[in-house]
Specification:
Layout lengths: L4 H4 L12 H4 L4 H7 L6 E4 L6 H12 L2 E6 L5 H11 L5 E6 L6 H12 L4 E6 L3 H4 L2 H4 L3 E4 L5 H13 L9 E2 L1 H11 L3 H14 L4 E2 L1 H7 L16 H11 L3 H13 L3 H16 L4 H17 L5 H13 L5 H15 L54 H14 L7 H8 L4
Parallel strand pairs: 1-4, 1-5, 2-3, 3-4, 6-7
Helix pairs in contact: 5-6, 9-10, 9-11, 10-11, 10-12, 13-14, 13-15, 14-17, 15-16, 15-17, 16-17
Length: about 425
């Protein structure tokens, strides 16, 4: 009995892989690693059917390395310990972990020292976005490599290869190019999906010239680019936020529906909350609060009814005035602290040392507070917050006026002087 076509056409070596030029092409990272005989640890992330596990196995085969493949969900601690013990017998031992984003802390604690000291090389495969779903301790030790969806042209090339290969259909299927392109388009970059449908076509139309109408009889539903393992940083999530930012309600609703139709409530709600505070922010803080309430309501009622409160939030955010002023202020401050961390002024410290009573922070004198210098001396005139000149909401305009007053207020780091000028009269 023949194994499935997708299994029979599974590449064995790195040069057998279709597409992924940035990884396995002439100057690809993995190809260079193999040519230099320098193994590396990495995580392959991308949508289902893009060949992550296959690439990992081709990599170890091309290196002629000993390896073991496990699944983060089904494996236990003993399996990982045994793999590490086995690795001690080899110069190069690679452990491949599928669904690595589901690796729990107990397993990580066992694994990390072995990766750190070079006992094993680790390759992870995941459909999730590693910048969010992978533990920082693991992420910092591995290269992150994106596996991209195949183009329609690459899929057609692969399908023709499967038709002609002795391991594939061995030229027993006669199908025209238009029909192959249709299979490719319906596969949405998923080579495994396209091979599965090619196999169904070959079974249904044996000894017959296959055309587009024949294929359409079988393929009724296109392959969705999302499933319940996809993470919020894939294209639909990004497109939804950009649509809200651009005020396009219809586009925002469309991309949100794609996520919800795949049952991906977590990605949608997380991105909505980020969008609310990042893109709407101080222009409409009540919309941020309403979004949070809508998300809580969505989880309370669950899918499919969750779409009702979420649709209200999406329309609210898309049509709301926008302001990134607060978010951008924090980003500028991050850049400043990264380049040059500065000491806190003595009178602002939690427990100031060797500071006389007259020079201590005046907790009980509100009138003094606005006149004190709070930034370190070297950056005392630095502006992180830049008001949105195009503010349309009354609330943001109010904040901008308050900021203007604050900027025009006399400030000093001479506490005694400030107390004399603005403090309580004795």
């Amino acid at each position: 009995m023949l194994k499935p076509l997708a299994f029979r056409m599974r590449p064995k070596l790195i040069e057998d892989i279709i597409g992924q030029e940035h990884l396995v092409g002439e100057n690809g990272f993995l190809r260079r690693s193999i040519e230099e005989k320098i193994p590396v640890s990495f995580i392959l992330f991308g949508e289902p059917g893009t060949g992550k596990t296959t690439i990992a196995e081709c990599y170890v085969n091309s290196l002629h390395a000993k390896y073991k493949l496990i699944n983060a969900v089904t494996s236990n601690k003993k399996e990982i310990v045994d793999a590490i013990d086995e690795a001690k017998n080899y110069e190069c031992f690679i452990l491949i972990i599928d669904e690595i984003h589901r690796l729990n802390k107990d397993k990580q604690d066992i694994l990390l020292p072995a990766v750190e000291n070079g006992t094993i090389y680790l390759i992870g495969a995941t459909t999730a976005n590693p910048y969010i779903s992978i533990n920082k301790a693991i992420r910092s030790r591995l290269h992150l490599l994106e596996v991209k969806k195949l183009s329609n042209e690459q899929l057609v090339f692969g399908l023709k290869k499967a038709i002609s290969s002795p391991n594939g259909l061995n030229n027993k299927l006669d199908i025209d190019d238009e029909a192959l392109l249709y299979i490719a388009k319906q596969s949405n970059g998923d080579f495994r999906y396209s091979l599965n449908y090619l196999e169904i076509v070959s079974i249904n139309f044996k000894n017959k010239k296959v055309n587009l109408s024949n294929v359409k009889e079988i393929i009724r539903v296109p392959n969705s680019s999302l499933d319940d393992n996809d993470d919020g940083h894939y294209d639909a999530v990004s497109a939804m936020q950009k649509s809200i930012r651009g005020g396009d309600v219809n586009a925002a609703i469309y991309y949100a529906s794609r996520l919800l139709s795949a049952g991906d409530l977590d990605s949608l709600t997380r991105r909505l909350l980020v969008t609310a505070y990042e893109d709407i922010g101080i222009a409409n803080p009540q919309a941020c609060l309403r979004t949070k309430i809508a998300i809580e309501s969505a989880y309370e009622v669950g899918l499919p009814e969750a779409i009702i409160p979420l649709s209200v939030a999406i329309v609210d955010l898309a049509l709301s005035p926008k302001s990134k002023a607060a978010c951008l202020a924090m980003e500028r401050a991050f850049e400043e602290t990264k380049d040059m961390p500065l000491d806190v002024l003595d009178y602002l410290k939690f427990t100031p040392v060797n500071v006389q009573e007259e020079d201590r922070y005046p907790y009980d004198e509100m009138n003094v507070w606005p006149h004190l210098q709070y930034l370190p001396e070297i950056i005392k005139n630095k502006k992180f917050f830049i008001p949105n000149e195009n503010a349309t909401s009354s609330y943001e305009k109010f904040l901008n006026e308050q900021y203007k007053k604050e900027q025009n207020t006399f400030k000093t780091k001479n506490i005694r002087e400030a107390k004399k000028l603005y403090g309580k009269k004795k």
